[in-house]
Amino acid sequence: MIEVHDLTKRYGDQTAVDGLTFTVKPGIVTGFLGPNGAGKSTTMRMILGLDRPTSGTATVNGRPYADHPDPLHQAGALLDAKSVHTGRSAYRHLHALAATTGIPKSRVDEVIDIVGLHQVARKRVGGFSLGMGQRLGIASALLGDPDVVILDEPTNGLDPEGVLWIRNLMRDLAAQGRTVFVSSHLMSEMALTAEHLIVIGKGRMIADTSVSGFIENAANESVRVRSPHANALHDLLAGPGTTVLSVDRGLFEVTGLTAEAIGDRAAAAGIAIHELTVVRPSLEEAFMELTKDAVEYQSTLIGEAR
Ligand SMILES: Nc1ncnc2c1ncn2[C@@H]1O[C@H](COP(=O)(O)OP(=O)(O)OP(=O)(O)O)[C@@H](O)[C@H]1O
């Protein structure tokens, strides 16, 4: 379990993490989402004792990470997969890590098997593809058989097979009862992997929600209706609780009425309908809407900039 309480990190006059409080529970995958620069990596580094909080606390299994006598057994992390000595083989890298932390040699073979690197384990890490490097990073994270697994953007730059592999691995780790905390800036990816979401923007909490709750909230659907009798249709549909937005000639976007209700009303009034389409925002659009005030560099439309 990870518990973060009123966690804050300032760099000079910039606040990277601003009073975050949340709990990451065991047995499920928890996604940590936010646009670039939201403060995800900084939060993860503070949880792992790599950055000192300006104020607030972060604990792993009830204690600050650095206070555990057996930290690698408590939490394993993938923060930067490229921070490996490229002249060494994967096997030697893991072996050195195991030897300096009192982990038995047999565990190295186990983690190499878990991440599927046995065929290349004796090859130089310098020649590894991004996906292989990522697998090695995960092998290092799992070396201490940790209760808590923290992964910072583990699918970044991976091909679809690599993404699928990491997704399944995270689910398996959670099913074994571990706490899995994974950051991403892609809502669509997290919707497939995580059960719970913590969404931050500009260092602040935006949402602490189940994925299903987020999806329900996001299902703010509207209906596109096209008719050659635009005025009559508009008058028929407009009313309290309904918004009828004219998108184009004879084309409306209606909220507050179902497609069935619109079709039935038009039929009863004898108004021909040429299109009736339910429009649901994608999860990515819902996420962008949720975090739109918190993106670091917002693009400006040329029309607005003038
Ligand atoms: N060592 C540092 N010194 C100064 N500012 C920093 C430092 N580390 C992070 N920041 C700033 O803190 C903010 C949060 O950065 P962080 O890397 O935690 O965000 P992130 O959500 O992980 O973003 P990304 O998805 O781009 O990795 C950013 O504005 C960043 O520039």
Automatic annotation (TrEMBL):
PROSITE patterns named among the record's database cross-references: ABC_TRANSPORTER_2
An example Gene Ontology molecular-function term: ATP binding
SMART domains: AAA
ABC transporter domain segment(s): 2-227
UniProt KW keywords: ATP-binding, Nucleotide-binding, Transport
Signal peptide (from-to): none
CDD domains documented for this protein: ABC_BcrA_bacitracin_resist
Taxonomic superkingdom: Bacteria
Pfam families per the UniProt record, alphabetical: ABC_tran
Similarity section: Belongs to the ABC transporter superfamily.
Official protein name in the record: ATP-binding cassette domain-containing protein
Organism of provenance: Glycomyces niveus
Phylogenetic classification of the source organism: Bacteria, Bacillati, Actinomycetota, Actinomycetes, Glycomycetales
